[in-house]
Design a protein that fits this description.
By secondary structure, the chain is mainly α. 55% of the residues lie in helices and 8% in strands. It contains twelve helices and five strands. The chain has a three-stranded antiparallel β-sheet with strand order 1-3-2. A two-stranded antiparallel ribbon has the order 4-5. Helix 5 runs parallel beside helix 9. The radius of gyration is 18 Å and the shape is globular. It starts with a helix and ends with a helix.
Length: 237
């Protein structure tokens, strides 16, 4: 997440895709020591976050990023979850645990192995377990407790984070009340009453449009799903 934050901080929100490559590789705003490490980090960031203005997923991330630095870990985590099927599979270890539980990398390796039973050998699963173990610490779901264990904690959820999670459900076809019961929202560790309060706050800030009547909830994303401008479409090169 730190590399993504540094790259977004270095560039205006309307930057073309080529600007992200120049900043990361040529200008070395991520302070990598070799050209190879700069190239690898850029490829990694591009795979997880796209870094292209013609992508709704990335444009919405950039729109919501300035709202609150406390949102950054989960905004980055949600985008990475949407892009990385293996990281998404590892979420089973998070969803079936509760704050205060002790977890190890083996729990995440097991979750991925259950989802992809014939895809990875033991050694590869162990590496995946270690990598995703670290990734969930970055999202705020884990804190270090010892050399090989971490404690499950509740992630920080802000109006911007909930907006992005609801948008991901909306992109998948969810509407109304169902948007508050998607995978993307469950990973936020929030109670239903907290979710509605956060959504109302997001609506007041113009991140989304929330309407409630007779127990029915309607959520819109007029700003985040606005049509791509000609400039944004031309910036993909």
């Amino acid at each position: 997440m730190a590399s993504l934050a540094a790259l977004l901080e270095a560039l205006p929100a309307d930057s073309p895709r080529s600007a992200y490559h120049r900043a990361a590789v040529e200008a070395n705003v991520l302070a990598k020591t070799t050209d190879g490490s700069r190239q690898r980090t850029y490829r990694y960031l591009r795979e997880l976050y796209l870094l292209r203005p013609d992508s709704l997923l990335f444009r919405a991330l950039r729109d919501l990023w300035p709202a609150d630095p406390a949102s950054w870990p989960m905004l980055a985590g949600l985008c990475a979850l949407a892009r990385d099927a293996v990281f998404r599979a590892s979420s089973a270890a998070i969803l079936r645990s509760s704050p205060g539980d002790s977890l190890t990398s083996a729990d995440f390796a097991e979750a991925v192995g259950e989802h992809f039973p014939s895809s990875y050998g033991g050694g590869t699963l162990s590496k995946i377990g270690r990598n995703t173990f670290s990734s969930w610490q970055q999202t705020g779901h884990l804190i270090r407790a010892g050399r090989t264990t971490k404690i499950r904690t509740g992630a920080i959820c802000t109006p911007a984070v909930l907006t992005y999670a609801l948008l991901l459900g909306y992109i998948e076809g969810g509407r109304g009340n169902a948007l508050f019961d998607t995978f993307w929202v469950r990973i936020l560790d929030q109670q239903p009453s907290q979710l509605l309060e956060l959504a109302a706050n997001a609506s007041r800030q113009g991140m989304l449009e929330l309407r409630q009547a007779g127990g029915v909830v309607d959520v819109g994303f007029r700003q985040l799903t606005r049509p791509m401008t000609e400039v944004e479409q031309d910036q993909v090169q």
